[in-house]
Automatic annotation (TrEMBL):
Keyword DNA-binding (UniProt): yes
Keyword Transcription regulation: yes
Domain of life: Bacteria
Ranges of residues in domain HTH rpiR-type: 1-73
Molecular function GO labels: carbohydrate derivative binding; DNA binding; DNA-binding transcription factor activity
Pfam families: HTH_6, SIS
The organism's taxonomic lineage, starting at the top: Bacteria, Pseudomonadati, Pseudomonadota, Gammaproteobacteria, Enterobacterales
A Gene Ontology biological process term: carbohydrate derivative metabolic process
Keywords assigned: DNA-binding, Transcription, Transcription regulation
Protein name: MurR/RpiR family transcriptional regulator
Residues covered by the SIS domain: 104-240
Gene3D superfamilies (alphabetical): Glucose-6-phosphate isomerase like protein, domain 1, Winged helix-like DNA-binding domain superfamily/Winged helix DNA-binding domain
Amino acid sequence: MFSHSAVASLNNLEMMVYNYVIKNRDKVMYMTIRELADAAGVSTTTILRFCRKLSCEGYSEFRVRFKLYLEQNEPQQANFGASEIISFFKSVNNEEFDALLDDAVDIILSSERIIFVGAGTSGSLAKYGARFFSNIGKFSNHIDDPYFPVTNDMAKNALAIVLSVSGETEEILRFASQFSLHHCKVLSITSHEHSRLAKLADFNLSWHVPQTRIAGVYDITTQIPVIYILESLGRKLAKKLTE
């Protein structure tokens, strides 16, 4: 029901509905369209657009299909942490997402070296990605300081893989822009393809998991999808390097 292509088609308001549905799946099937709209902070028109993008003619059909989806795919009640991860893996377990990974690997293969970029938690994953790719045999390094200077020599024949949950962090956007100005290709890995970083990048991989913050500031969004994407890219890369 929540395929990668369907979720990727949602705009920012519709993503608010999706995030609420994923976090409150045990309540949604019993809510009226007005109750869901009020809870998600959107209009009923947005709810209807959301339903149509999931191939439902209206809200009534959505509730029926959503209930069946839960019964067929989640026979045992999972806690929130498991639920969001399960939803992610179901959305990417298809040929469409696999083809996106293949396209990304082709870009990686055409680059002489890889520069992983991120800040905060994404900076730690950038370091992990660089080590993982280096183990495979692809020259890679990482930058976790968004004020690190970008030079022509650094960017020449390189690919910057930029990690960001929101895709809206100003320092990371500035960094990605500098790589682009130096004619370095940018591949972004973000939580949503409608973010500014995704639009700035030459290629984007998105993972569509609801963001979670403590006190509205501290980001504790799961990073399991990012690790899965990095390792999937690495394994595909390793296979092509040995062909």
